[in-house]
Amino acid sequence: MSSASKSLGKVSAVLTHRVRWLLRSSTLRLSLLLTAIFAVGMAVAILLALTFGREAVLNRVDTALEGLAATVEADDTEADTFSVIIRPLSEVGDLPKEFEKVVRTGGGTVSLKRDFRRAEDWRVLISRDKEGEPVLIAVPLDASEDALELLGNALWSTAGVVLVLVLVIGLAAGFLVQRRLARITGVLDRLATGDLEARIGVARSSDDLDDLAGQIDRTAQELERLVAQTRNLSASIAHDLRTPLARLRAQLESLPDGEERGAALEEAERLSGIFDTIMRVARIEAAHGTEGFEHVDLSALIDEAAEIYGPVVEDAGKSLVLSAKSGATVLADRSMLIQALANLIQNALVHGGPDITLFASGSEIGVSDHGPGVDPDLFDEIIKPMVRLDAARESEGTGLGLALVRAVADRHTAELELSSNKPSGLRVALNFTKM
């Protein structure tokens, strides 16, 4: 396929998309409906106006012909002129045959195929002259027909221009409203993905869409304040508890060696780890912009992660397999990605099978295992902070590992994708396609 054909195909696809996008506008649909109703109304009004106008003209002509017939004698040859035919009914043989047909029906309009006395349309009336004798009296209607045709053309042209204007105004209004709705929808999508700084901004239209935009902005502002307050509270609590926890740990280390001392130190270490993770998640969620970002080769990144955490996996009696397929280079915070992979590896160590796969493929990196896996209905739950599938919380883990991974994904506007591994297990990937 030539480049010109490809370009034409792209332009056609873009136009099709824009037309479908515009046709979704309720304002445009309402405009089209009103335009259709207006068009039908105009057509009916014009047809009625032309029909009744023609009837009125013919009635006036008939009245004039009756009056004229009553003032002449049919035998008076001077009464029959070029533009007015007045004949006794017995002397219509030299007139076109169409006149005879009308005479038999008592009068009417005659439309000739050829001009007769420079006219095609005649109004024929059977009346009585001033002697009371029945006569045929007829006049040409071409002037009246021309006037009616001119009137009809003027009405149809005006209706066409008005309809085009209404349609253009409807299209413009629909486009403007649809563009504003698209902006509102875009902001709602950003809020749904965690970008709580997204705002619509109020225009100067002072209409219902402005009211809606203002209400959404106020709601987003309040939501941002509450979320920030919650994050700060969690981080503050974790930070404030670290100091007494460190003193407690120091006091435990000063105790004589023993099983209870070791268990207490291990528990203190676990609590310290939880607080560190809470603060780390809070810092990631509170960060903005691309400060600290660099170009990261995803294939090289998983090599680095495998080098760091491979011995840990081996110590746990499991194997770490690398799968790198043309990993892309993305703009990211390297340390955050390493931390996210570490959490996924730790999660697989605790809940996965003996084999753990660390993969990079295109714009995607992640970890998969062959453990028992997770019910897909719970995928959205397990990425929430402090959520654990073990309701009794007897198994190892804090419920913060995947929450930190999600925070890292959100920080990079990446998709966190959870899926079932074949034949069993869990596959967790960070997809950077949207970056």
Automatic annotation (TrEMBL):
Coiled coil as UniProt keyword: no
Locate the transmembrane regions by residue number.
30-52, 154-177
Keywords in UniProt for this one? Kinase, Membrane, Phosphoprotein, Transferase, Transmembrane, Transmembrane helix, Two-component regulatory system
Gene Ontology molecular-function annotations: phosphorelay sensor kinase activity
List the catalysed reactions. ATP + protein L-histidine = ADP + protein N-phospho-L-histidine
> Listed GO cellular component terms?
plasma membrane
* UniProt main location, coarse: membrane
Cross-referenced InterPro entries: HAMP_dom, HATPase_C_sf, HATPase_dom, His_kinase_dom, HisK_dim/P_dom, HisK_dim/P_sf, Sig_transdc_His_kin-like_C, TCS_sensor_his_kinase
Look up the domain of life of the source: Bacteria
**Where is this protein found?**
Membrane
Ranges for domain HAMP come to 175-228
- What EC designation does it have? 2.7.13.3
Domain Histidine kinase, first and last residues per copy:
236-435
Annotated protein name in UniProt: histidine kinase
For this protein's source organism, the top of the classification is: Bacteria, Pseudomonadati, Pseudomonadota, Alphaproteobacteria, Hyphomicrobiales
